[in-house]
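Lab notebook, bench 4. The sequencing result for the construct came back, and we need a structural model before the next group meeting so we can plan mutations. Quick request posted to the team channel:

Model the 3D structure of this chain.
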Amino acid sequence: MTEANAQPTAPANAHTPENEPASAKPAKVTKAANVTKARRNAAHRSGQAIEPVEVTLHPDRLPAPTTRDDPLDRAAHAALAMMTGGLSPASMALAWLDWSMHLSASPGKCLELALRAWRDAWLPGADSALAAHAAPNDTTHHPQPGEQAAPATPDPRFAAPAWSLWPFCVYRDTFLGMQRWWEDATTGVPGVERHHEELARFGARQWVDAWSPGNFVATNPAVLEATAKTGGANFVAGAQQWLADFEDMAASHVAGRPRSPSAYQPGRDVAITPGKVVWRNALCELLQYAPSTAHVAREPVFIVPSWIMKYYILDLQPHDSLVRFLVDQGYTVFMISWRNPGAEARDLGLNDYLSNGLLAALAQVRERCGEPVHAVGYCLGGTLLAIAAATLARDGHTDTLRSVTLLAAQTDFTEPGELGLFIDASELAALDALMWRQGYLDGAQMAAAFQLLNARDLIWSRMMSEYLLGRRSKPNDLMAWNADTTRLPYRMHTEYLHSLFLDNDLAAGRYHVDGRNVALSDIEWPTFVVGTERDHVSPWRSVYKLLLFTHNPVTFLLTAGGHNAGIVSEPGHAGRHYRCATRERGAPYRGRQEFLDETPVTEGSWWPRWTEWLRTQSSGQVKARAVPDGLGDAPGTYIFEP
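Done. Here's the predicted structure in token form:
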């Protein structure tokens, strides 16, 4: 399929004003969203499928333009943001100023750091000198050239046995000492504001990682060994791979052409679970998957992925597709496939995604199945689902949902983890300027921020492997999906970052839908919440906070892995485990550390545990539902839009 197969019109509320700020007037709402409360209540009383709520976007809740409408200031801020990739130099400068001034006023801390610097700098050199010039009668053991020494740390960058040989063990230990010194230097300085301390620590980590001996030919034993074995062919292969990557990047960012095709193509290698597009509007498509069992659960499963990612993270290859697993377990499965927006969608807001996306698609699922729905939200899609569930509960639509499942989704943003490094007033001002100029936040710009959070593995280790050793990383379906980036509309992302991330309006009860507040405490449906142990995007300790805001039965499951790999955790996946516990209605809150300490570890995938929970929330089975011809085959057309 190609984009030519479907030509939906642009969103009704999308326009590209040249000089008007996004907050100047509310975005228009499509006809599907313009329904009155009386019509919704009548539909509810008659048992019909609910219609999307009317959405009122409040200009006063949208942050003012960062440059107060001054065209010259706006252009200057946008140009600076383009040069820095949306990062704020002022934010980092303030953090370093705060840290350095307080450190200079702490003589005890400075003395401690000076002594540590002397010790860490002297001891590796002293060991080397002793190893080279030890007296014959010296019985003290010192590492000799060619002799292995015990590694000082389990750092995976230095896991190869060659790093324990002299002199590479000296390079390693000197670097690790410098790393520890900067960690101590940027933490625990009295008076430093917490966010500034985190930024200073992050900046120091980036600088130190760049000087790792593994990044240089002369100090990396693996590179030297490969060079000796291949006669330098590893450098030739690395140079060719660097040129290929550079040309690919230039083609996508300068010439406007898409990147080189991946080995995993949607509809051919991934996203191949049989199904149909049964409904479409200008914002999303709704996919319904064909049953593989004679009978299915009475209540369908409706999945809301994040629009930060392509939906097929949940429908990769058959063996690791959550969609295929649910279908084979006997569920009718629906999935939203979001459209990849361009500059024309700059004024789409977060409530447009709620009304014309989630709630409009939910109404279609209810109309087709006539039953309450098991609603599932992943990442930002889970946050939107929590807003939708609170809205439905507030408006009395208690028969709309059967259960709510949130996968790696935050509802409280006071502890966002390392992603919070990029969220403060200065950073958001730079990002707002960048998005205002483009009309959206580009996927490559988002990817760069996530790479910085794990630069050790995603940047330096990759560069060493591919460009110095000449080894191409073997692609897999998850890597291919990760490279298939999406864009975020200016207004939506600004509202999300300010209202939810920075101001925490949802958890505080200040978020408005249909002109009125919504509260997480109104949600009464049984809820299943999944967090992942190594999540940089939605830290599990933040995800766990939903238990503070609702009194309905909540099952919390903590699984091994990160934000993506922890969710894509099919049965048979090696090294997987989870903890799972349920807080029944009326039971007291149990703290996060208590949950961690008191909940036993279960080996294996969490998927069967979740489907078992879904089965207990269902009300029996019905004959498998046939999928109508619809508007075309899954995975639809929006997934292919560049």
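Residues 1-68, 126-153 have pLDDT under 50 and may be disordered.
Will bring this to the meeting.
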